[in-house]
Amino acid sequence: LAALGQPAPTLHEFVSRRAGCEPLVPACARGAFLAEWMKSHAAGSLDPILTAARAVKAGTFDLLGSGPVALGPSPDWQRDFKSGMRWDSGAYSLEIVQTPDRGHDIKVPWELSRLQHLMVLGIAGAVTGDSSFRLSAVQQVDSFLAANPVYRGVNWNCTMDVAIRASQLLVSEGYLRGEGTPSFWGRLLMSLLGHARFIRENLEDGPVRGNHYLADLAGLYLCALGLSEFSESDSWRQFSRVTLEEEMRRQVHPDGFDFEASTSYHAFATEMFLFPALFGAIKQDPFPDSYLRRLEKMLEAVAVLIRADGTLPQIGDNDDGRVLIFSQYHRPRRDWRPLLALGAYLYRREAWLFRSDDAWVEGVWALGEPFIQWAGSLRSPLSPPPFASQAFPQAGVYQLGAGSLQMVVDAGSVGQGDNGGHAHNDTLAFELHAFGREVLPDRGTGTYTPSLRLRNRFRSTRAHNSIEVDGEEINPIPEEAFRLIPADHPRTLRWRTGLHYTYLAVEHRGYHRLPAPLVHRRRFLLDHRQGSLALEDRLEGMGHHRFQASFHLPPGWDARPDDGGWSARQVHGEAGLRFRWKKAPDGHEIRVEEDLHSPSYGVTIPARTVRIAWQGSAPQIMRYRLVPFLGEGS
Fold this sequence. Notes:
Blueprint: H1 11-19, H2 31-41, H3 46-57, E1 60-61, E2 69-70, H4 107-112, H5 118-128, H6 131-147, H7 159-176, H8 182-201, H9 211-226, H10 233-251, H11 263-282, H12 289-305, H13 337-347, H14 350-355, H15 361-367, H16 369-376, E3 387-392, E4 397-403, E5 405-410, E6 430-434, E7 437-440, H17 452-458, E8 467-469, E9 491-497, E10 501-508, E11 518-527, E12 532-541, E13 544-552, E14 557-562, E15 565-570, E16 575-583, E17 589-597, E18 605-617, E19 620-630
Helix pairs in contact: 1-8, 2-5, 3-5, 5-6, 5-7, 6-8, 7-8, 7-9, 8-9, 9-10, 9-11, 11-12, 11-13, 12-13, 13-15
């Protein structure tokens, strides 16, 4: 009560006063209307929402590759339920030290305690009229508050997760009003004040300021908007707003790409910049044009790279992180279409809304009637837009695209100001996607700290569609989970795109540190009409070396060598790929090996990889053609 800007004699009076105020998300106050509108206009979208709500109401969660796990209506908030490891709930949070490489994952209790399932319970209550959904949410929040006092336990160890949790509580609040006693709401508001103060006092502003710091700032800004009754809120708002503007200039390249050297973290950071701008506009606190212009470029990069299933090509790390989830809790975390739906409304970009496909309903539940009116004024296109070639030169990300064919090449630095915390050894590597399918994917992330061996396997050179020399990494991997030592110095030599062809030439010097130095140059030529790609690898320098080129197949594909190179196809499906030599290295050997693929964080499944190995003296040249096909091919 002492922190209030306008005094209240009792906590009960403050709770009553707040209950009559507009929530952070105004649409929440119109939940019954939105539910009826959705029943009339998009009834099919409600089934997955209700299914997800029933699961979490019963205490069943599926997080970070766990599969559905029954944790009960009051989970053990300090436990990694995948490994069984439990942290001391009474420990001072800032003295808890992560212990990597011991099989447990501190991200699991953090992820559960982000409370990103609350909104779907509130929406289910509005749709069904069944108050037990909202009551379940209130009971889970109360359970969390009782077990996690401020500065105690593992869930106050990482400010980013505190910020995401505070934001999710505030955006869910409007849907949960009407349930819970005044004393519950008093405990929640006291905890939210503690959340905001914790964020301000424990900003992750160390030497590597990345997505964690962005989450802190975004969460503090939303706390300022959502807790405006407190006298500190204006200082939170001014600080976080100015600092978000600074980080937009520092962390986002002029081409609109985030500096973390990861496509998933690019989209994650885009969310962190988007939600303050979106709710700042709603609350009459608009961000400056310079901020909004660069944010628009960030969203445009997502729109350019996104596939029909909502995924982005995988460059660098992915840990399934999201900032705010409204109605789409059931959707795979790598599906970024809800982000496009919300960005489409902020910028009134109808093409982005159409790319969001069935995730457009996120805009209804997050923004309400203004979104409904805008979306209802648009006409749907007849067919989805084709891929197009586009460069993000400061980030070193290049898309060679035509029709249904998409090749994305990473020719950028390790990111994070050369720290490389979320980068992989994927320099000059590519992902190939065609006919709505992965054809030559990136192997993914696997995990972070539970196993450094697995972590390093998935960020190694041989886990990417690139070339390994003498068994060395492109960039040395230190004994740290979140760092690469930059040695590659990638450079774009030429980029040209026209009506019928797209051409890219790039190089890296990661092998220049070898006793006999080498430079790897890779050239790509996309034939738009034939839907094929010609590649050339030149390894120039001196000395005798061992070379190994890797081509990673999706799960459920197999390959076999043949007279012209090798061919691969789906075991149960019609898609395939032909690899045809134009110039093969002398004495090469083609092997098809059993491998692992990680489609999302915490998940690994079998897959096959084609390896081409040879030895020889530099320079070496390898030329080949990649032809994706359906049916028997050509």
